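> example.struct
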């Protein structure tokens, strides 16, 4: 029985956006991008991982359009526990992350306005996977990402940079379904809503 201690995932990413600016009409559009994860996750020792995501696209509304860009990178360090003959594994981790969100609003009339949000955060998470003997696995991934130093820069205000006082309670929840090919266990097909 071959175990997969290291895993590299590269994903195409699609996000449907419906943005509601306070007091203004909504914007609709799609973001397209790429994401990736490398994890070293053997049973019952130290866990390490890095993760990145990048996506961008246009949204349109009755008052104009918005170009959105999103980037996220994080490193993780933790411990993986396994039980029930390695059929269940749970990983607890923490780490450090950086997130970038850019937005350029181009109104139907007037000048454009750009916002550049940057933040550091500390991810704290739990990854639980249940392995089936038929090659099908499922999991529950919960990650809390409290912000440390969120800032925003607004253009055309020529270099003004603000530290945001109101921070967001960022959470990520995923339920991945994984199929591991029997002929070559190095390859997996993963669906993660």
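> example.seq
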């Amino acid at each position: 029985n071959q175990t997969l201690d290291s895993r590299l995932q590269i994903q195409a990413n699609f996000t449907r956006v419906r943005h509601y600016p306070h007091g203004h009409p909504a914007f609709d559009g799609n973001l397209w991008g790429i994401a990736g994860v490398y994890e070293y996750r053997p049973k019952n020792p130290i866990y390490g991982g890095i993760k990145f995501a990048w996506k961008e696209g246009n949204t349109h509304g009755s008052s104009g359009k918005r170009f959105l860009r999103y980037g996220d990178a994080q490193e993780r360090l933790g411990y993986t526990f396994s039980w029930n003959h390695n059929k269940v594994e749970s990983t607890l981790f923490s780490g450090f992350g950086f997130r970038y969100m850019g937005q350029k609003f181009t109104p139907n009339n007037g000048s454009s306005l750009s916002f550049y949000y940057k933040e550091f955060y500390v991810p704290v998470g739990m990854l639980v996977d249940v392995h089936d003997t038929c090659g099908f696995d499922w999991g529950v991934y919960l990650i809390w990402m409290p912000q440390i130093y969120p800032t925003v820069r607004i253009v055309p205000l020529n270099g003004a940079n603000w530290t945001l006082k109101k921070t967001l309670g960022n959470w990520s929840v995923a339920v991945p379904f994984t199929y591991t090919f029997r002929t070559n266990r190095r390859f997996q097909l993963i669906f993660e809503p």
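> remarks
The mean pLDDT is 89.
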